[in-house]
Amino acid sequence: xxxxxxxxxxxxxxxxxxxxxxxxxxxxxxxxxxxxxxxxxxxxxxxxxxxxxxxxxxxxxxxxxxxxxxxxxxxxxxxxxxxxxxxxxxxxxxxxxxxxxxxxxxxxxxxxxxxxxxxxxxxxxxxxxxxxxxxxxxxxxxxxxxxxxxxxxxxxxxxxxxxxxxxxxxxxxxxxxxx
Length: 179
Ligand code: 5GP
Prior knowledge:
about 180 residues, alpha/beta, Rossmann fold, six-stranded mixed β-sheet, four-stranded antiparallel β-sheet, 3 helices, about 35% strand, globular, binds guanosine-5'-monophosphate
């Protein structure tokens, strides 16, 4: 399936599964090397990172723990607009080595919010692993150590990422063609 239709948009395969897995394998190798002996706690940001998290974790060979968080958007007071709140952190993060596992960093604002929230829980260190990075869109200064793939500034779906709730189930990554 090279072209798919989701609602009003058509998408074409841009990164096949084999290419994704090769880069996930590379990132896992880097984490295994860098964080050995640190018993890292991986925090997977749902929903978008579920496939990346599964494939990444199958390749992590050092002792580690994994948990899942979600970002809930709610309407803040009028002037601030949408605010994202981090929900689901039940672990004690004090003195822990944390690895945030994200699907995509676009402007970086979501990641910045996550770092702020997690930072208040006194972890020892926070590392970032993202499947995708859109470098042209990045607005904030972030130290993203583990990036599986950099992509241009186009809207993508598949491998966990959605368009209006649909498309998360595809094993390849697709880019919009008729935007
Ligand atoms: P940021 O706060 O970095 O601008 O946005 C991050 C979030 O925007 C991601 O977690 C993801 O939910 C969404 N996002 C950004 N770019 C894309 C894209 O190309 N496709 C999809 N499906 N979601 C995206």
